[in-house]
Amino acid sequence: MTEELLHLTEEPLWEAARRAGTYEMSTRGRTLREEGFIHCSLPHQLPAVARALYGSDDEGLVVLVIDAARLGSPVRYEAMEPGGEEFPHLYGPLPADAVVEVRTWAARSARTVRGEGGAR
Questions:
Q1: For residue 13, what are the CA distances in angstroms to 72, 108, 115, 120?
Q2: What is the Cα–Cα distance from 47 to 45, expressed in whole angstroms?
């Protein structure tokens, strides 16, 4: 069984990408073009990622649940520093239809807000 592939982002960025059909933000304030890949996480990594990127300013964040089988670009697991924890990196744009679920982010829990298929 494959673990969920996740990406944390701001809801307005996801909504714009959903309308455009493609998501191209890498991480907070950086695009795919600038970074070379889209930062993703596994479920157990997401709380630390949220703290590192957003601190207590986590209002309006959503978690994109990605179906890796729908991606047109490779996902590589890489550490940001030698010997560090490996994170999934998507080396290309994220098609909106590869996002099968969108969850609101809350530090204590993430609940589903939208269903499958280019999740809204």
A1: 21, 23, 18, 12
A2: 6
Q: Are 4 and 45 in contact (CB under 8 A)?
A: no
Q: pLDDT of 26-63, one tens digit each?
A: 999 999 999 999 999 999 999 999 989 888 777 889 99
Question: How does DSSP classify residue 3?
Answer: P
Q: Which CATH superfamily is domain 5-114 in?
A: Protein of unknown function DUF952 (3.20.170.20)
- Map out the domains of the chain as residue ranges: 5-114
CA–CA separation, 34 and 29 (whole Å):
10
Q: How far is C-alpha 18 from the chain's CA centre?
A: 13
